[in-house]
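> forwarded from #structure-qc
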């Protein structure tokens, strides 16, 4: 229902994860019989967790560890790992920066050109460990480095930006032809962010295997402050899930996965994302808190070092527990920061659902509340 903001403008009411809650049904289950498996094309994962392509979250080593734990780590091919042979030294430098000069210094560090040979080297490191290989580029860099990605080989590719459209208009450069690129790469491609029914439907028509939902969220993002863009995630995920349903009919049965990406700081947020229709979640801040995350207690995304208009910042998130404990527990606190998968499994069991697809049908209520109460 639209609300009148002023005489010349109306807006649709949208809901964040804090505005909703899931509702138990007449049935409950033992958590042990709940399945968290999900599949995309020929790839099957034990948990619906994708580690976001951020230098503070995913290094080649953490991508390997997340793969061994049953999830998927996505390496940012525009990050330090493809710019420097000794990326660890640059990570240490970023961790030591004073707050007042962090953005400017990060812009200088990330001004180093991306090296195609390092793309091949880093992806080979992950492949040698026997886990699925996933990598990400922005739409602009995909045009420039797609051949290096094709040559190196990936099992899944992510095109991720603040917002990605199927129709990009430019007077200066030839825009990325998403449909052509996805066809030529011949592996599952996830594209996003998107936050509306129409934008998601157009991305699905390009052949994308998954759509990332959300932009302007997350602890390290300032997109709402700098661009005025924000998408309350409960509504955004539901809208894109509706596009998936309609595209399933339109395409004669082709299922496109919905990946919630942003504003997922606690296990409760992950539960609500799946309840609203997500097949999996892409986590940044939640995994940056791991003691073995490359950020060392600091977190930042690619928007934090944009050369012209930074839309993010380096933030201190602390070091909470090892990655395995964050995902599978045990948790020593009651704030939803650890045992993320145990919490999802228990919520599904408490509401009577045995797998993720079933849980997408759970009842929800609009129940605004103050987090932690």
């Amino acid at each position: 229902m639209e609300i009148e903001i002023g005489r010349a403008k109306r807006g649709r009411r949208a809901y964040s994860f804090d505005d909703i809650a899931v509702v138990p049904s007449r049935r409950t289950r033992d958590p042990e019989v709940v399945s968290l498996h999900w599949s995309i094309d020929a790839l099957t994962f034990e948990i619906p967790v994708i580690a976001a392509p951020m230098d503070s979250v995913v290094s080649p080593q953490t991508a390997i560890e997340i793969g061994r734990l049953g999830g998927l780590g996505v390496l940012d091919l525009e990050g330090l790992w493809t710019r420097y042979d000794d990326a660890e030294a640059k990570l240490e430098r970023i961790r030591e920066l004073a707050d007042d000069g962090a953005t400017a210094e990060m812009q200088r560090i990330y001004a180093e050109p991306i090296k195609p040979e390092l793309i091949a080297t880093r992806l080979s490191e992950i492949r040698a460990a026997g886990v699925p290989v996933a990598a990400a580029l922005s739409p602009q860099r995909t045009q420039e480095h797609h051949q290096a990605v094709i040559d190196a080989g990936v099992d899944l590719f992510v095109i991720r930006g603040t917002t990605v459209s199927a129709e990009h208009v430019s007077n200066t450069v030839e825009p990325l032809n998403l449909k052509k690129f996805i066809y030529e790469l011949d592996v599952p491609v996830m594209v996003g962010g998107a936050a509306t029914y129409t934008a998601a439907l157009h991305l699905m028509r390009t052949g994308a295997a998954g759509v990332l939902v959300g932009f302007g969220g997350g602890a390290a993002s300032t997109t709402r402050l700098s661009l005025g863009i924000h998408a309350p995630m409960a509504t955004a995920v539901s809208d894109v899930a509706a596009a998936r349903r309609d595209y399933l009919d339109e395409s004669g049965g082709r299922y496109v996965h919905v990946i919630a990406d942003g504003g997922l700081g606690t296990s409760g947020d992950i539960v609500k994302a799946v309840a609203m229709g997500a097949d999996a979640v892409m986590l940044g801040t939640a995994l940056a808190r791991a003691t073995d995350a490359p950020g060392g207690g600091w977190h930042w995304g690619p928007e934090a070092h944009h050369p012209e208009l930074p839309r993010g910042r380096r933030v201190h998130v602390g070091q909470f527990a090892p990655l395995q404990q964050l995902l599978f527990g045990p948790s020593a606190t009651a704030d939803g920061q650890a045992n993320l998968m145990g919490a999802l499994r228990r919520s599904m069991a408490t509401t009577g659902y045995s797998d993720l697809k079933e849980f997408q049908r759970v009842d929800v209520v609009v129940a605004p509340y103050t987090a932690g109460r």
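QC bot note: The two ends are 29 Å apart (CA to CA). The CA atoms of residues 3 and 340 lie 36 Å apart.
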